[in-house]
Specification:
Helices cover about 40% and strands about 20% of the residues. By secondary structure, the chain is of the alpha+beta class. It has three domains: about 250 residues, no CATH class; about 90 residues, no CATH class; about 110 residues, Immunoglobulins (Immunoglobulin-like, Sandwich). The strands form five sheets. Strands 8, 9, 10, 12 and 14 form a five-stranded antiparallel sheet that branches. Strands 13-11-15-16 form a four-stranded antiparallel sheet. A hairpin with a 2-residue loop joins β1 and β2. α2 packs antiparallel against α14, α4 runs antiparallel to α6 and α6 crosses α8. The structure holds iron/sulfur cluster (SF4) (2 copies).
Length: about 475
C-alpha cells in the first residue's frame, strides 16, 4: 500500500559513507537509565538461556529439540512433526508481536533484547576489563606490541573464547540432553561430528560478538533492512533534537538566550554520543538505518547535559512527526490494531491447537506381498506393520487389541513399547472361516486410562476375489 510522504520515515541508508568500513570501533561504555534497563532485560534473558537448558522434570528436559526422535519437548508437552501448525502459530505470534513493538518503539528489540547485541555488550565489557577504557584502547592500537599488551590481548581472547564455548555448549544442549553432552565432553567420548560442530559454533560466536560485531547488524541482519516498512512517523526512534542542539559548539555557560539566532545550541560537540555508539554512527546526522535504538547515546548525552547545567533530553526517543508538530505521537493506528488482531488470533489458535494436540501417532501398513493367507484349519489371516510414536511423556507403553468381528485373533506383541525408535512391529490378524468380503476391523491401543482406535480392514479370500 502506498504511504503518504508525511507518514514515511526518512532513514539514511547503510552505506560506506559513514566511514565504518575497515575501521575498528572502540565503544566507550556509559551508564544511565537505559543502560540499567538493558541490564534489567538482558540479565534475566541470559539466566533463562543458560539455566533453562538444565531444567528437567522426572528426567525429561523442559525444552529440547529432539530431532533424532522427531519431537520437541516443550514444558511437559511433546510436539511431533504433526504439530508443525502449532510451531507456525507460535512463530506468527512472535513475529506479529515484534512488528507491534517495532511500530511503537522502533528497533528496541535490536537495542535491548537481540542476542547479537547482548553478546556484543558482554564482549565489549570483557575488552574493557582486560585492555582498559575505549580511549586507552584506541591509543594502544597505535603503539608497538609490548609484553604487557600481548598478555592483555591473550587474556581478552581467552575470555572471549570461553564465553563463546559456554554459549555453544548451552545452545547445543537445546538439541541434545545437556547432561549427556557434558558427560561425553568430560569423558572425551564425544563424536568427531559433535566436536566439529562445537568448534565451528564457538568460532562463529567469537567472530560475531568479538571481531565483527556491528557489521552483523549493518550488513547481515535482514531485520534492519525491512524495519522502515514497519514504522511510521508516529513510531518512537532515538532522535537528536537539532532545533535545540544546533548550532553546536564548545561549552558555554547555560544561558536563557541560547536558542536565539546566532548563539550556540545545547550540543557542546563533545562527540561522546558517537564514542558510545556500538555501530559507530553520529545520531546528529539524522535517523539512520544503522541505528539499533540502544539508547547509549541518550544516556551519554544526558550526563553531558547535567554536567553542563542544561536540560536533559537533547537526544531522546521521539517520533518523526514531532519534528513538525508539538503534538505527542498517536499510540493507536490502524496498522497497529491489525498487528494486535493478528497476534490475538495466532495466539488463541495456537493455544487451542496445543490443548487438542495429538498424544499418539499410529501408522498401520498392510503387508503388500501377502494380502491374505488361508490356512488348512479354515482360518484366513492378514499381515500388518504398525509403528507408533508417543508425544505424551506419561505414555510409554500401550496394550494392543483388535475388534470389529466376532472371533478375531491378534497375533503379535500385546504390549507396545513407545520408545519412538521409528521401528515397525509385525502383527497378524486371523479369523476362523470368515463369511467373506472385506471386513471392517478396528485396532485399539490403550493405556490405563485412555483408548485410541484406528480403523482398518481384513481381506478374506472371498472378499478379495469379489473386488
Ligand atoms: S553527547 Fe550530546 S552534547 Fe555531546 S556531541 Fe552528542 S549530542 Fe552533542
Ligand atoms: S545512534 Fe544511539 S541509539 Fe543508535 S545505535 Fe548509536 S548509540 Fe545506539
Amino acid at each position: 500500500m502506498h504511504q503518504s510522504p508525511s507518514a514515511q520515515i526518512p532513514l539514511r541508508p547503510i552505506t560506506d559513507s559513514h566511514g565504518l568500513e575497515g575501521r575498528k570501533i572502540h565503544v566507550r561504555l556509559t551508564e544511565g537509565r537505559f543502560q540499567n534497563l538493558r541490564r534489567l532485560i538482558s540479565w534475566p534473558l541470559l539466566a533463562l538461556f543458560f539455566g533453562l537448558v538444565w531444567m528437567q522434570s522426572n528426567g525429561t528436559p523442559w525444552l529440547l529439540f529432539d530431532f533424532p526422535q522427531r519431537r520437541i519437548l516443550l514444558f511437559g508437552t511433546h510436539l511431533s512433526w504433526y504439530d508443525l501448525h502449532i510451531l507456525t502459530g507460535l512463530m506468527i505470534t512472535g513475529a506479529s508481536l515484534l512488528f507491534f513493538v517495532s511500530m511503537v518503539w522502533g528497533r528496541v528489540w535490536c537495542g535491548f533484547a537481540c542476542p547479537q547485541t547482548i553478546w556484543t555488550w558482554i564482549f565489549i565489557r570483557i575488552e574493557q576489563w582486560t585492555e582498559g577504557r575505549a580511549a586507552l584502547r584506541q591509543r594502544q592500537e597505535q603503539m608497538p606490541l609490548t609484553r604487557a599488551k600481548l598478555a592483555r590481548r591473550i587474556v581478552k581472547h581467552t575470555l572471549w573464547m570461553t564465553v563463546a564455548l559456554l554459549t555453544t555448549i548451552t545452545f547445543t544442549g537445546y538439541f541434545m540432553p545437556i547432561r549427556n553432552l557434558v558427560a561425553q565432553l568430560a569423558s572425551a567420548e564425544a563424536s568427531t561430528t559433535l566436536v566439529g560442530w562445537l568448534v565451528c559454533m564457538t568460532l562463529l560466536t567469537y567472530i560475531n560478538a568479538g571481531l565483527i560485531r556491528e557489521k552483523i547488524c549493518l550488513h547481515a541482519c535482514p531485520y534492519s533492512r525491512f524495519q522502515a516498512v514497519m514504522m511510521d512517523d508516529q513510531s518512537l526512534k532515538v532522535s537528536y533534537n537539532a532545533e535545540r542542539g544546533e548550532p553546536r559548539g564548545a561549552i558555554k555557560p547555560y544561558s536563557a538566550t541560547k536558542l536565539e539566532k546566532g548563539t550556540t545550541g545545547d550540543c557542546v560537540d563533545c562527540n561522546i554520543c558517537v564514542q558510545v555508539c556500538p555501530t559507530g554512527i553520529d545520531i546528529r546526522d539524522g535517523l539512520q538505518a544503522a541505528c539499533i535504538d540502544c539508547a547509549a547515546c541518550i544516556d551519554a548525552c544526558d550526563q553531558v547535559m547535567l554536567k553542563t547545567h542544561r536540560p536533559t533530553g537533547l537526544i531522546s526517543f521521539a517520533a518523526a512527526q514531532q519534528q513538525h508538530s508539538q503534538q505527542p505521537p498517536r499510540f493507536w493506528r490502524p496498522r497497529l490494531l491489525g498487528y494486535v488482531a493478528v497476534t490475538l488470533i495466532a495466539f488463541s489458535s495456537t493455544g487451542y491447537a496445543l490443548v487438542n494436540k495429538k498424544d499418539l501417532v499410529v501408522e498401520i501398513r498392510r503387508d503388500r506381498d501377502s494380502l491374505f493367507r488361508e490356512f488348512s484349519d479354515g482360518s484366513v489371516c492378514n499381515f500388518y506393520q504398525i509403528k507408533a510414536d508417543s508425544f505424551d511423556p506419561t505414555l510409554t507403553q500401550m496394550h494392543v487389541s483388535v475388534s470389529g468381528q466376532d472371533g478375531l485373533v491378534l497375533q503379535g506383541p500385546e504390549t507396545f513399547q513407545l520408545d519412538n525408535s521409528g521401528e515397525w512391529t509385525a502383527y497378524r490378524v486371523c479369523l476362523m472361516e470368515p463369511a467373506g468380503g472385506v471386513l471392517p476391523i478396528t485396532f485399539n491401543f490403550s493405556d490405563q486410562t485412555r483408548t485410541w482406535s484406528r480403523s482398518s480392514s481384513l481381506i478374506t479370500n472371498t472378499g478379495y476375489q469379489q473386488r
